[in-house]
Structures are given as C-alpha cells and as structure tokens.
Amino acid sequence: MKTLRLILGDQLSASISSLVDCDKENDLVLICEVIEEASYVKHHKKKIAFLFSAMRHFASELIELGFSVCYIKLDDPSNTGSFIGELTRVVNNVEGDSFSKIVVTEPGEYRLLNDFQSWQKEFDVEIEIRSDNRFLSTAAQFSDWASGRKQLRMEYFYRQMRQDHNILMEDDSPVGGKWNYDNDNRKSPVLGLVIPPPFRSNIDSVTQEVINLVSERFSDHFGDVLPFQFAVTRKEALVALKQFIDSRLCRFGDYQDAMIEGEPWMYHSHLSFYLNCGLLLPIECVRAAERAYYNGDAPLNSAEGFIRQIVGWREYVRGIYWLKMPEYKSENFFEAKRQLPDFYWTAETKMNCLSQCVTETQQNAYAHHIQRLMVLGNFALLTGIEPNQVNEWFLIVYADAYEWVELPNVTGMILFADGGYLASKPYASGGSYINKMSNYCKNCQYSVTKKNGDNACPFNYLYWSFLAKNRSRLGQNHRLAMMYGVYDRMSDDKKMLIERDSKAFLEALK
Ligand code: FAD
Ligand code: DLZ
Ligand code: SF4
Known about the structure:
Blueprint: E1 2-7, E2 28-32, H1 35-39, H2 45-64, E3 69-72, H3 83-93, E4 99-105, H4 110-119, E5 126-130, H5 139-146, H6 154-164, E6 169-170, E7 173-174, H7 205-217, H8 234-247, H9 249-252, H10 272-277, H11 282-294, H12 300-324, H13 343-346, H14 352-364, H15 369-382, H16 387-397, H17 403-414, H18 431-437, H19 458-469, H20 471-474, H21 481-488, H22 492-508
Parallel strand pairs: 1-2, 1-4, 2-3, 4-5
Antiparallel strand pairs: 6-7
Helix pairs in contact: 2-7, 5-12, 6-12, 8-11, 11-12, 12-17, 14-15, 16-17, 19-22
Bound molecules: flavin-adenine dinucleotide, ligand DLZ and iron/sulfur cluster.
C-alpha cells in the first residue's frame, strides 16, 4: 500500500498534515512547477523566482530527510502544466505496486479546492484532502466563533486566540492590563532614524537557475527579479526571523504606520513570504516575539502589536475568506466600475506617495501594510476602482499574496466592498494622514495643505467627494458621523469646488 502525497508551492513545511504519517519507504512526495499556477494571474517575477527556488530547496531537504520525492521542473519537456496532469502522469507511470491513495493538504485558494474536490472522479484511488495544520484556528472554529454575531470584529477574535493559546497572558488577563496597545503605535517618522537593513540571502546555483528561467519564460510579467534577497530555505527564514526579533521588533510598534521615501522595509518583519509558503510557522514567530518581551528585549507595544498581526489579523482574514467564499469574490458594495489606472503598473504619476509605493512594489514584490492600506488602497477606494481589478493587482504584485489573505484585505479592508463585514468603517483618508505618517509630501508636485485648485493634493478633495457620493450607503455609519458633520458645515461654494476638482481629476485619470 503506498500513498502519493502532493505538496503545493505554499505548503513547504515538513510538519504539514499531508506528510505527518508518510511512510518514507513506500510513499512518494510529488512537488511540481506547473504553468497553470504560474500564470493564472501574471505573478511578479520575483514571486515566481522565490517560490520555485523555495520549492526546489524544500524538495532537496525532504530527500535528505529520507523521503522519496518526485520533483517536476517547469521546463521538463514532459510537464503537462497542471496538477491534475502531473498526478495522472505519476499514477499511470508508477513502477511496481500502484498507489492506494492520494493525500493533499487543503489549498489556500477556493478555485483549487474546487478542483481538488472534482479530482475524485478522475482517479480510481481515494483522494484525501486534509485540513491545514499550520494555522492557529481552523475554518470550522472560526465559523463557530462567528455564528450568531451580527458584526464580526477582529479585536474580539484576537482576544479569544490569546486566551486559547495562552499568548501574553497572566492567568486570565492580558499582560500589562490591556489587550491592545495600538494607540502607542502611530508615531510619525522622525529625522535620523537608523533602520537596520533587511535580511539578504546569497544567490546559490539553485536560485540562479530559477532566476534565469523566470527571466526567460516570464519576461512580460510585472516587476524586477533582481536584486534577489529573499530566504529560500527554512534555515535562512529562521535567520530572517532572528534578525527581525533582534534588530527591528523593538521599534516595530512605534513606527508601524510610518513611511519614509527610499526606506521600503522600515521596522517591519518581512516574514509574510515565509509564513505564507510554510518556511516559518506562525506560532514560532509569535513565541519568539513573546520571549523578546519577557527577556526585556522589546517593549510591550511592539511585541503585542506584532503578535496581533499574526494571531489576530492573519487568522481573522483567513476565517472570513473560508466563511464567505465564493460570494466574497463578487462583493461590490459601492458598485465601483473604474478601470485600474496605468500608473499601478508604471509608477508614472505626479502623486509622489503612489509613485514611491508602486516603484518599491516593482523592485521588491513587497510594500508594508500602511503603504498597501493608506496609499495604494485608499486611492483605489476613493476613486472607485472595480474590485476585481484591484484584487488581481494585489494578487499579482506581492510575493506574499495568495487569495485567502489578499482577497479579504482588498475587498474587506481597503475597498469596504463587503459593506462592512470585515471592517467597521472604510479606511478612507485625505492627504493629511499620509503627510503625518510619511515624508512623501515634501517631494510631491501637489501641495498637501491645499484643499482645492490645480496643485491641491487629490486625496483632499477625493476624500470629501467619496463621502458625499456614498452618503446613502455610509450616512448611517456612526463612526463617520463626525466627518459627515464637518461636510455638512461646509459652504455650498466649498462643496462645489470639491466636486469640480474631483470630476476633473477623475476624467483625466487613465
Ligand atoms: P509585518 O508588518 O511585520 O506584520 C507581521 C505579520 O503579520 C505579517 O508577516 C503577516 O503575516 C501578518 N499580517 C499583518 N497584517 C496582516 C493582515 N492585514 N492580514 C493578514 N496578515 C497580516 N498580507 C499577506 O500576507 N498577503 C497578502 O496578499 C496581503 N495583501 C494585502 C493587501 C492589502 C490591500 C492590505 C492592506 C494588506 C495586505 N496584507 C497581505 C497584509 C499586510 O500588509 C502584509 O501581511 C504585510 O505588509 C507583510 O509584511 P511584513 O511581513 O513585513 O508584515
Ligand atoms: C504561486 C504559485 C506559483 C507561481 N507556482 C506554483 C507551482 O508551479 N506549483 C505549485 O505547486 N504552486 C505554485 N504556486 C502556489 C499555488 O498557486 C498555491 O498553492 C495556491 O494558490 C493555493 O494557495
Ligand atoms: Fe500623496 Fe498628496 Fe502627499 Fe502628494 S501631497 S505625496 S499626492 S498625499
């Protein structure tokens, strides 16, 4: 009796559920680079290079651990280009006893789960889809927590997770007396901050081969493959984690929302790539931050803030994804229809904040949270870009993007396209917030202090125009009552200028 075990590109953990009972003598592990996955959206070049290199290294590690591995490279002439094609090839070509079962851990995207569920009719052998054991909560636990609640809020889910997993707890109370130290975490960037460099790997022969492949086969995809500096093995990812804990966690909280021109990495962890493809496990990152706090190496606002992102936001958005799919993908609360402007691909815009964030995305396949939320996302919300196009862009351009995490962040968090299921109000803002949290406005052709007229910051009038236009949808939201009050006290002339400038800006937007 032997089992075929399929491992996907974002399942690179030796402890994953599909491998737990692997019989190394008999079973075969299949890992394959398939064009269907590399091109169902035109992923950033660096994202493909990162995953292929990490997949190849992971296969070698499994072989060293005594597993039998069949690794299919993208340019293998027999490669059929799809998971089902590769499974069929292996099942049909097996020497000796045939497989009695195919085992796979559930994928991170609904479209693939649908495919997996349909495979049974293609094969005579049983296909077992196991739940993903790398998260702290399961889809079923999240659904239980959510059931009967009128509104879901991350904060309450997060508290539950802290208690369930005994994270930063003193008996039944949160360490320090508060669950959340976010109010301490909005410091503006100050001059002279010395930001430690991010983790940089050396390009070995495996990564070099993959870089060559990507440069040749995916030359029309967005983004730069070089310089390449991501960790591609678990060992390297653990070094990246240690480097973050030792050198950046202490200021993570203070400068979590800060943006500085030419400083794409700030005090963030840059661990999402590794967490999402399995090189790191969430609980080990959480425990490392918790230890740093107890050892006196990181303040509570930083450790708690970092831990909240992982056990709170990350688990919460995944819960929402599986609870609300497939309908979640077609949500469009504001009936937004606008085409994605070209500058999301070219960075060619006079708006310096957007130009900086797109350029860094092009170079690094990374932007930190507040760039994604308050610059790139805020613009998409205020200008009414069609949600599917925004979702596709975010899925393409970031090396940490898989639909389970990208879609709720885009549809729920930035676009409020779910009407307030994930967030209690739209994360909309004018230019003053970007100016407070960054130095982008200093080098911008627009003036952030000007509210109307030719060189006024477009975020300023677009913000009010967005609120005015969507009053029927947002007017009852008590968290926006103050802003609607401010709008109502504006003179008719002022309101007319807002509409005039917004109309002219949107008509010129290509
Ligand atoms: P840090 O700031 O160091 O945070 C630590 C960890 O917390 C991250 O590595 C990540 O695993 C987790 N985390 C933080 N915020 C979130 C969140 N909102 N949702 C889920 N996990 C979170 N994250 C992705 O992993 N993949 C995506 O495709 C993705 N798309 C996003 C799209 C938009 C529009 C927005 C606003 C956010 C998105 N995020 C996504 C969340 C967040 O921006 C990234 O996780 C973060 O920027 C990754 O960088 P980091 O590892 O340096 O994070
Ligand atoms: C993103 C990606 C890419 C680019 N290529 C592959 C691949 O060739 N083989 C593979 O197994 N996985 C790949 N992936 C990751 C999958 O798209 C990912 O497993 C699904 O989106 C589910 O999260
Ligand atoms: Fe962005 Fe406006 Fe500041 Fe320019 S002035 S950088 S457009 S917020």
